[in-house]
Amino acid sequence: MELAERMGELTQLRSMLSTCLAGEGGVALVTGAVACGKTSLMHVFARDVKESGALFLHASASRAEQLLPLGVVGQLLHSAPLSASQSQRSTRLIAEGVTERPGQGTETLEQQHARVIHEFCTLLLDLTAQGPLVVGIDDVQYADRLSLQFLSSLTRRLAAKPILLVLNEWAVLEPALDSFRAELLSHSHCRRIRLGPLSPAGVAELLADHADTWPSSPPHTACAAISGGNPLLIRALLEDHARVAGRISAKAPAGPVVADAFREAVLVCVHRCGPDVLEGAQGLAVLGDAGTPALLARLLDIEPPQADHVVEVLTMAGLLADGHFRHPAARAAVLDNIAGKDRTRLHRRAAELLYQEGAQATTVAAHLITCNQTDAPWTVPVLREAAEQALLEDQVEQAVKLLKLAQRNCADPRLRAAVTTLLAEVEWRLNPSAAARLLPELITAVRNGLMAADVTAPVGLLLWNGELAHASDALNQLYATVDRSDSQAVTDLHVLRLWAGCSYPELLRRAPEPSGFPHPDDSLSEAAATDMRLRALTAFTTVLRQDNPAEAVTAAEQVLQSCHLGHAVMDPVIPALLALTYADRLDKAAPWCDALLAEARSRHAPAWRAMLAVVRAEIALRQGDPEAAERHARSALGAISDRSWGVGLGAPLGILLQAMTSLGRHAEAEELTRAAPPEVFQTRWGMLYLYARGRYHLAVNRLQAGLSDLTTCGELLAAWDMDLPGFVPWRADAARIQLRLGNVRQARRLAEEQLTRPLTRGSRSHGIALRTLAACSELKQRPHLLRKAAEELQEQGDRLELAETLTDLSEAHYALGESDRARMMARRAWHVATECRTDALRDRLSVCLAEEDTEPLIDTAGVTALSDAERRVATLAAKGHTNREIARKLYITVSTVEQHLTRAYRKLDVRSRVDLPVWLQPSGAATT
Q: GO molecular-function annotation terms (predicted)?
């Protein structure tokens, strides 16, 4: 026992014992919470009584024996030193008290019980002839009715007798006990001793008392906060702590361990408090943080004072603080102990009450989820609002649960359509194939004109899953039913058309826009001005339609600066990234894509992770890094299933196929040439796949098959008004096939067409076209064209195309008999090809590099004249890095890079970066 903490209460009992020894009786009513140390106090005091020479009689009441008449009295007399005649008398009185029928004669049952109680009191008083008497009774609140009457009768008679009654009790809702307590406290010789929970100092003492058993104890302040000073709970924490510390052996946990022993102790406390308090604890556990005494009274249909009493008892027991459970494990233990049907009933009632009280939707919805019922009309809007809040907090699985429950019993057709649409979008974010099961219902809703909110979502989901016919029907239905005065609905439809035009052009052919349909820009509506989807798709369309890429790049960056990943299929992030990518701003697209990929991983959004990985793979491919492209493409395919990709599967397959071809892994590439489903070829992603397959056929010398794929790709792009070399430079590869077939005129025509396409000059596709044109030109013209191509490709950052161009340039010089220059170009190409890990190129280069040549083509004095800064910049430029990349690596501005290069060209007597030697930097020196 915590003697220092309980010394004040023990001192009061000892004082009353001294009075009893002096011949005066008294009553001590020791009141405290369950398991707060009342029994321990009784045991310590019993030792004091025995040491004083007084007689100590003890009894313990229990709930199980509460219906046994005179059960407590029987225990007392059984332990008393009675004579034979007194023992016989006691046995007879017990028999008479237990009987349900009055004895012979005119005595009633009540009179009989009164007489028996009187004789028991006399019998006990007679024991004082042997000396002072102390009677201790634990848990008097559970004493039977006749025993309570006996104690009341004895209390009235002991003022002048050396008898001390010590009664332990804790507050429960028992009318009989309230009457008994009131009578006791009305006597002047009755003293009430309140036993509170342990203070933090008392908790520390208790922990110190058990140091031998549990040498590595948790901090006493944390134990006090969790247990509320309840010794039973503290010992349970010690047991849990010791069990875990023993299991890990190497190091004890720093804080308290809350496990099985603690949960069991919590249940012991609430069950010992009685059925009313137990029910109250269960109600508070169900209500959680929203629980108040007033709400508890309504939940359990009890009077408010009774609810206040429940909270008071549980607070005294250390389970509650400020009306709520001190620790989540305590609440969980009580919740788990509620029977299934009772728990469902309580949660349903709690949801109703909290809704009436205007509680937050998430709080109400948590109860609806637990009881799994949505039969009331108000439940569906609440669940939907809670789901939207869950999405804001990235609790996607919780949002799915809420929406599924809302959808299940929703009777209103329009509301059900809205809930189903939101559910499909949220499930798409986690697993697009799971969202596909909702398509039939969405199709029906669209046909019935029930889509009053976001009209784009159902059509977007249909398109993602390749349901082009249903999507066109839905779009025509939307044209007929949408309110044209609703600016948001008109904006949504325009967003849908832009998105379809960029990715599903066939939809617009099947469902053309009606004449006179308003454009969102016509009214300059607020929705059109602030809609990020509209801004992103406009930028993407601008790039694909070859209008003004500078404005598109600015708009795309503004979108990316303003948006985070959402849950809609037509999220603005992807088109904004693609606008940067197809505008050849890979220096901007790559960092944005990496940041968004990290966000998608942290927010557990598999669909977004997959789509962003595809964009990152395409960026890597355009940077001439086929290994990174393969890695990102495989990551995309692994994030979600092939079925979940829908028609978008063409993108990762096409990029992976192109990467495998560039790496020379033709056996793996061959397996991918038959992987795309037919519906893919009606989409933008199908063009990526067709182009990649055509390049593979070219690489393995299947010229007619390759020409067929590339020509089909070009025809579809032209029909869709998407024939942008920055998207798919199909003409360059078709021209190379024509060259191999001996059709030089057709090859040259294709190369020149690519060069004359709008907005091609100064782009990656322009460099590719120049290289192709060089292959169609006379030998003497090739070096000039290839040097220009190399400069453009290096500036755009495509190392693989740069390596191939340098290889072509080396071969051209070799054919012209310029061996020194051929070997220098070959060394540069070898270095870049090694970075790209393209074995096929290195095999071609081995011809030029077979003969040793150590004579430089430039004056070595020029090299030594370079400053350290100029040398670092020139070295990186020679390795194929763009000015922007060099600036980023060396932490200088692009303008500074240009100035260093200009001075390096002059000192080295070269005209451009193509002529820079690869051995500028001494071996082992840092370049970044």
A: DNA binding
The candidate with the shortest Cα–Cα distance to 757, out of 722, 795, 781, 792, is 722
**Using CA atoms in the order 439, 440, 443, 447, what is the torsion angle rounded to 10 degrees?**
-160
Give the E-state strand segments of 331-472 in sequence order.
none
568 CB-side CA count, 13 A: 22
State the Cα–Cα distance between residues 677 and 31, nearest whole angstrom: 79
Give 799 or 328, the one with higher predicted confidence: 328
Taking the C-alpha atoms of residue 459 and residue 569, their distance in angstroms, rounded to an integer, is 10
Is there a contact between 55 and 130 (Cβ–Cβ < 8 Å)?
A: yes
The answer to whether 287 and 298 have CB atoms below 8 angstroms apart is no
Strand partners, 28: 166, 191
**Which of 497, 453, 450 has the alpha carbon at shortest distance from 475?**
497
Q: Are the C-beta atoms of 459 and 496 separated by less than 8 Å?
A: yes
User: 510 is written with which tokens?
Assistant: 């099947």
CB 182 within 8 A of CB 170: no
Query: By C-alpha distance, which of 609, 630, 647 is closest to 692?
Result: 630
Task: Indicate if the pLDDT at residue 398 is higher than 50.
Answer: yes
Quick one: which of 792, 797, 759, 758 has its CA closest to 772?
792
How does strand 26-32 pair with strand 190-195?
Answer: parallel
- DSSP letter (8 states) at residue 481: H
**Alpha carbons 876 and 888: distance in angstroms, whole number:** 12
Within 10 Å of residue 843's Cβ, how many Cβ atoms?
Answer: 11
Output the six-digit token pair for 98.
């237990």
Cα within 13 Å of Cα(762), Cβ side: 5
For residue range 664-694, what is the model confidence (pLDDT) as tens digits? 899 999 999 988 888 899 999 999 999 999 9
What does the DSSP assignment read for 816-855? Answer: TT-HHHHHHHHHHHHHHHHHHT-HHHHHHHHHHHSS----
Residues linked to residue 56 through DSSP beta bridges, in sequence order? 134
Tokens 């009580």 sit on residue: 334
* Sheet of 163-169, strand order: 55-60, 133-138, 163-169, 26-32, 190-195
Burial code (b: 16+ CB inside 10 Å, e: under 16) for 760-788 equals beebbbbbbbbbbbbbbbeeeebbebbbb
Residues with Cβ within 8 Å of residue 814, at least 6 apart in sequence: 822, 847, 848
Rounded CA gap, 738 and 566, in Å? 46
404 and 374 in contact (C-beta within 8 Å)?
Answer: no
Contacts with 320 (C-beta within 8 Å, 6 or more apart), sequence order? 228, 284, 311, 314, 326
Q: How far apart are CA 875 and CA 866, in angstroms?
A: 11
The dihedral sign for the CA sequence 21, 22, 23, 26: negative
**pLDDT tens string 688-724:** 999 999 999 999 999 999 999 999 999 999 999 888 8
Its pTM stands at 0.71
Using alpha carbons, select from 418, 400, 470, 393 the residue that is nearest to residue 439.
Answer: 470
Give strand pairing partners of 595: none
> Which has the higher per-residue pLDDT, 122 or 4?
122
Q: Tokens standing for 551?
A: 């404005």
On whether the CB atoms of residues 581 and 589 are closer than 8 A, the answer is yes
Which residues lie below 8 Å from residue 740, measured CB to CB, with a gap of 6+?
Answer: 701, 703
Whole-angstrom CA distances from 803 to 192, 194, 586, 789 are 96, 90, 18, 11
- Between CA 41 and CA 194 the distance in angstroms is 12
Alpha-carbon dihedral 274, 278, 284, 288, rounded to 10 degrees: 140
What does DSSP assign to residue 161?
Answer: T
Other beta carbons within 10 angstroms of residue 23's beta carbon come to 11
Name the nearest CA neighbour of 619 among 817, 796, 373, 834. Answer: 796
Provide the 8-state DSSP code for 60: E
* Alpha helices for 141-216 (secondary structure H): 145-157, 175-185, 200-209
